[in-house]
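Allow me, if you will, to draw on your knowledge of protein folds for a short while. I have a record of one protein: its chain in single-letter code and its fold written as discrete structure tokens. Could you please explain, in whatever detail you think fit, how the structure tokens follow from the sequence? The record follows directly beneath this note:
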Amino acid sequence: MRILYVAIDQTVPGTTGGSIHVRAVAEGLASRGHDVHVLTQPAPSGSFPQGAVHWHAMAPPFGLRQLRMGRAGAVRALAGTLRPQVIIERYYNFGGESVGAAQRIAAPLVLEVNAPIVDYPGSSKARLDRALLVEPLRRWREWQCRAASLIVTPSASIVPASVPREKILEIEWGADTERFRPGVAGHVPFVRREGETVAVFAGAFRSWHGAIHLVEAIARLRARGRRDIAAVLIGDGPELAHVRQAATGLEGVTVTGALAHEQLPASLAAADVGVAPFDVQAHAPLALDFYWSPLKIFEYMAAGLPVVAPDIPRLRRIVGHEREGLLYDASNPDGLAAAIERLAVRAPGSTPSLRAALGAAARERAVREFGWDVHCRKLEEALRRCVS
């Protein structure tokens, strides 16, 4: 199939989840023999990745994703030239720039939905929409859904109830299980002491990602004498300065800042435990559902790390408690620290063999269920049904 993938508010290559997703899906579909063309923004270097994917530079007007529809004509023109058999658009509330292109060439449109289409309870956007009487924002979103032949999402709960269930493909994100694996060599931006257990956080420093909770957990462990447990926090975002400040003067915590995604496999392989301390109370849209497909968790698992995460229904489906990791009660102030301590070398009632067993099970499940190759195989099957 010739596929046009429209993701003009993303930058490739990049370190954000969206950037990694776009590149992984494009390269995964290309590796399966498809002719993949991607509209996206190049990195500041101006260079796209080498390989089988055809990258086309396009950004929203003035770099504002709210103005994506301003590129509808350019998308339509490129689609007219390429004549793709299917168009995939990365959904955004003010998007829809591919709808006219798909209709003009009679190609199925696939919406890749990773953020809520429906409004969460108490949404200020919903109040504004209702104040405008005709609810233009809701109508625009639902118009995009009607125009789509298929909606691909980690959670059907963020799609309007009016969308027929057979039009929705629920599918997880993934990890590159060839690159992320135990024992990967490479530069590691932290130093570990002999006999130390290292817990790692890698991802976006936003309030609901909960990086600060890992720092607080290490402070608790240090206060009770656990000097053999350390933490490394990798990434960037609005909470980074807050996390750095909290870690100032706290022995055993390293905050690296952003790393190129290519550096992550070796960094994870050098750690012992992968921590995903999500704080669902800190992000109002999560009242709908924990709708993310958490990239960090899949990469931890692929690297052979047991996962420590809050015990919420969505994450239970990804990480089995005491099977691929440990899930803790986020309402317990000591929950995260206790879970990490249980996986430490000198943890009472535990041994490194527990950590090794959980890590091995996590790796096996990541390869079986959560690789990008698995994601792309399932996506390919759905695309073929759309074009048949």
User: Anything to note?
Assistant: The domain at 197-369 is CATH 3.40.50.2000 (Rossmann fold).
